[in-house]
Design goal:
By secondary structure, the protein is α/β, with parallel strands linked by helices. It is built from twelve helices and eight strands. Helix 8 crosses helix 9.
């Protein structure tokens, strides 16, 4: 069995100038296949609110729903690190409730959690989480949970001063104890500058080629979610077309009597079949 990916594994990859992969997963079988494929970190992202549950934003998902998907994914993984996105307002109300929610995710099977932002309060949550034995992945740049205060899906770090501001935040996260930091929707050059000035690895989500890790939403990667496609998402498959093709063929086979075939049904023994044939058409005496 391959050795389990841990925070130490991720740091060694950074120190060796190598790369690691991150994909989202929301169910047992997908997580199992990604694990078998060698994906290093499997993220139960709050993106599942939109791609799996049909909500119009990631704000709509809560702790109970995230816990269900965390349990499912964790059951399918043996090698990869399992990281759960802490959903909107699950760690913002109080330090006590934040730690309760975070530690519960570990009980459900997560090896670490991801938290957005870098306020003094968020830094205190990260410190206490790490002190409690729960590794934390940070998230800077475009932070979806702060969509309404950011003012939309805007690229972050577009100037020298803005880049320095993100770097300052990243250093604070590093000091608080994060083992990695997602940089989302940041210009490649800015992300490179930030990454070069940090000890912990960065993970690109639309932040170019110079981060240690790359993360994608699996439904984008597989071509399953078709409502929109981010600029930074590469489609490796066309699951939408495959699902439509299979469903249409099944529908046709059912309605044309082609499914199930003789090989896909159970049969009586010859003796039982003879008895059944003898009584075919005879009114049953069973009331």
């Amino acid at each position: 069995m391959a050795k389990k990916v841990t925070v130490n594994t991720i740091q060694k990859i950074k120190d060796s100038n190598e790369k690691f992969s991150v994909l989202t997963a929301y169910d047992f079988s997908t997580a199992k296949y990604f694990d078998e494929a060698g994906i290093d970190i499997i993220l139960i992202g709050d993106s599942l609110a939109m791609v799996a549950l049909g909500y119009d934003s990631t704000h709509k998902i809560g702790v109970e729903e995230m816990s269900i998907f965390t349990k499912a994914v964790a059951r399918g993984v043996s090698r990869a690190m399992v990281v759960t996105d802490m959903p909107f307002m699950s760690y913002n109300i109080s330090l006590e409730s934040a730690l309760t929610n975070i530690c519960n995710m570990v009980k459900y099977g997560a090896n670490a959690v991801k938290i957005e932002g870098c306020s003094d309060y968020i830094l205190s949550v990260i410190k206490r989480s790490v002190e409690s034995g729960v590794p934390v992945m940070g998230h800077l740049g475009f932070t979806p949970q702060f969509l309404n205060t950011i003012g939309g899906y805007n690229i972050q770090g577009k100037s020298f001063d803005a880049t320095l501001a993100i770097l300052e935040q990243a250093k604070k996260l590093e000091e608080a104890g994060v083992f990695s930091i997602v940089l989302e929707m940041v210009p490649e050059e800015s992300a490179q500058f930030i990454s070069e000035n940090l000890k912990v690895p960065t993970i690109s989500c639309g932040a170019g080629r110079y981060c240690t890790g790359q993360v994608m939403v699996s439904d984008d990667m597989l071509g399953k979610f078709s409502e929109f496609k981010p600029k930074f998402a590469r489609k490796y498959g066309d699951m939408k077309s495959l699902i439509l093709e299979c469903a249409r063929q099944y529908d046709s086979d059912v309605k044309n009597g082609k499914f199930p075939s003789d090989d896909e049904v159970f049969k009586l023994s010859e003796d039982e079949l003879k008895q059944l044939e003898l009584h075919r058409g005879v009114k049953s005496h069973i009331s």
